[in-house]
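Issue 218. Parser rejects a valid record. Input:
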Amino acid sequence: MWHLKRPWARKAVLALVAALMGALLAGCGGKKAEPVGLPGEGQGEPIATYKGGQITQTEFDKFTAYLIVEEPTVSVYLQIPAFKEQFVRQLALYKTLAGQATEAQKNQAEESAALFAEQLEEYLKAYPAVQEEMTKRGVSADELKTIRRVLAAADQVISGKAEELAGKVTEEEIKAEFDKNPNDYNIVTVRHILVSTMDLSTGEEKRTKEEALKRVLEAKDKLEKGAGWDEIAKEYSEDPGSKDNGGLYENQQAGVWVTEFKNAANTQKVGVIGDPVETMYGYHIIKVESRDIMTFDKLDEATKDELKQAVLDSKVQNYLLTEAEKLDIKVNLPAEETPPQEETEPAETDQP
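Output the parser choked on:
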């Protein structure tokens, strides 16, 4: 599916699901915010107020129409009242951020909006149904371009704040981040066989747990009796990433695996095929071939950079939460209409 390639949009949706607040927005301090000219401002009933402005139903509808064009899954979350309210709160933050953009940041936003308009024009030629959906939602291509310009200006402010905060991340903070889960950074080589309980492409049940466990124990028994991993992995394993490589994952950070698999990789005796391990995918048998216990001083620069980014993300999120409180956003969404319930005839009984 085509998207308008605004990188933070999908992440913002995921952040809403996880934490009811997008983690990639920066705060609202700095110079006084200016009006940003979003389509629909001042039209319709107010649905939110905050220090410095308000959000009306019309401008929110146009904002969400933009998000749906860019990331269609947004429409699902807009059906959930708690998530819908958080989108309103995000819009208040976007507007405040965009109102603080410098002239240089506004120029960058204008370039982003121009590119967006070009992409949108080509897309509407290829997919006329999208134009019909835009018309249905009461938003034009020019309005979408304006919304993009406002959000891109907010992006520029975010980038500036992130750069400022990045310079404040210390070595002590990076080490503290490592110390939260040091075993995630152990370098482990494993061989494993996965017998799935679900179809990995559709998520539908493939076999029962009992059937999967029986099959994975059968594979384990053959390995312990001398069969080779290449042979058994091809016959039994349903992990597409390793079945054609003897079940091998070599020199991996343990933290890349799901919790149960990671724990086995970090604790199982080296050189021994362990007992079956159940994960969301099914049952695994695992043989740890090597394990290098990592300490902070042994980390490479790429891993330290990842840790630094985690610290920075936390700093940005904390800044966001603090500044959102200062905005004192009050949301007053209209009550959702409840569909009428069908009347049913009383059940007949033998009682008089």
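Fixed in the parser; the record now loads. Residues 187-292 form a domain with the Chitinase A; domain 3 fold (CATH 3.10.50.40).
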